[in-house]
Amino acid sequence: MVPLYGSAVRFSMESLRVTKNLSSLNQQPRLESVEVSTMGNRINVSFFSISNPFKKKNKPLPIETVFKLPSPLPSWPKGEGFASGIIDLGGLQVCQVSTFSKVWATHEGGPDDLGASFFEPSSIPDGFFLLGFYSQSNNRPLSGWVLAGKDAKNEGALKEPIDYTLVWSSESSKIKQDGVGYIWLPTPPDGYKAIGHVVTSSAEKPALDKIRCVRSDFTDSYENDAWIWGPGKDNLNVYSTRPSVRGVQAMGVPTGTFIAQNNGAAGSTLACLKNAKANKNALPNSNQVKALIQAYSPYIYFHPDENYYPSSVTWFFENGALLYTKGQESNPIAINTTGSNLPQEGGNDGAYWIDLPINDSEKERVKKGYLQDAYAYLHVKPMFGATYTDIAVWIFYPFNGPAKAKVEFFNVPLGKIGEHVGDWEHVTLRISNFNGELKGVYFSQHSKGVWVDVSELEFENGNKPVAYSSLHGHASYPKPGLVLQGNGNIGIRNDTAKGKIFMNTGEKFSVVNADYMESVYEEPPWLNYARAWGPKISYNIEDEIKKIEKVLPGKLKSAFDKFVRSLPKEVLGEEGPTGPKVKDNWLGDENV
């Protein structure tokens, strides 16, 4: 008995000494007991246990945080149907649901190899029915939504599925997961289509009344959008979806659900929704548009070394911009303040172009722009069957400055390559017409760009997103740093940084077009000028490449030559750029 007692005492004293040594680490001892049997006797031994303060704790996944905008939504001005919570698609009413109950999750595969989570929407309003479950990658905060539907006229817009097909289960998958997940595809009745999947944590088929299918005349075709998850060891891939045809006149409506494709096939019968009657009652009126700009107007930060800033179009015209006519190059004319003497008809046929003042000193002054007078020019347009509003925020720069290239370890100036007069750049706000909430921002980057989910944006002064303008090139990025436009370690440098100079696009703005409001806004004459805002650059690209290659080692010369010749003319600066109304995104979706 004594050895046992003595051992117990020694263990307790050792525990106490460890407790004392770790007191500075705020480790609290926990009193525990254990029953020990010795020589036929049972003795309860008490001791202190201490958690290891040096043990690495699992970092919470980003999705474990529910995203919220930094500031509450304002009370929007009164209007017809904007931000009412429900949109009528012509007899099928829909609402956005953004509260979820987790059904199943994985912890590997997908973006950043962090896995994905699958949710059942909850708190669905009375009279509305579930159309599909929600899934999201674990690498960003939870910020999604799905649509729920209601048959507003009791005319059979919704029906239960007649069965389910198992698309995939994780039973045999050797992945890190919470339990086992089963992804089901509803089988719709004739004349109906399934909108989304059902996910369960058991092998039992879901109840038929769990979900509703939608009558075919309220549906449209979809396409895969962002990759959500794929285990890598199976042939399953999960994507978000969007309407196949998108633009001002397109009526396809995204549903917020996901598509699970096993071997690229299963789930191909799913559909998105459609605004069957082209109802535009949910679009914001002029007062609501003004309130949206006040709430979400982006801050654009310029690089500390930037030399070429924005200006208003009016300032550009008033400070010596000239209109040239082919065949009459020796006789350019001054441009009126509003651009009323610019040609208003025809396309970019090379017959006209705008250029800087002739005088060298004036030319250099105008190149630098005039930020104090810069305006944001807004194009407000319906998107996704008028369930969303896109506000394209256009910024005009008189000059796009010289670029630099990164070639392995070398940073080389590109000379005249990339320079051009008249630089139009934009960011686009995508706003839900269900509640007026910002859902994403598009950042234009030369000939293309990128959509960024609202949960991954930087904000200032409430809910105003931040954009970073690249040095001299003015492409827009959501975060500061270097983005290389090219392949591997060879490309054009897009350097961004948070300098002291920025543009608050909400201080000076002008809505130049919102066609759905008809005559509320008057278009400035310059908006309908479809020709070039800068001359065609007359430099010999061969000479420019040779100048640059002189500083490069032999092995890099051919790689750099190949890279430069692959750049589009818009990046090379050979062709004068056109204005906003000529771009594809004026009537269509943004180019990604």
TrEMBL record:
It holds the Pfam family Vps62. Residues 573-592 are annotated as: Disordered. InterPro entries: Vps62. PANTHER family: DUF946 FAMILY PROTEIN (DUF946), F1C9.34 PROTEIN. This is Vacuolar protein sorting-associated protein 62.
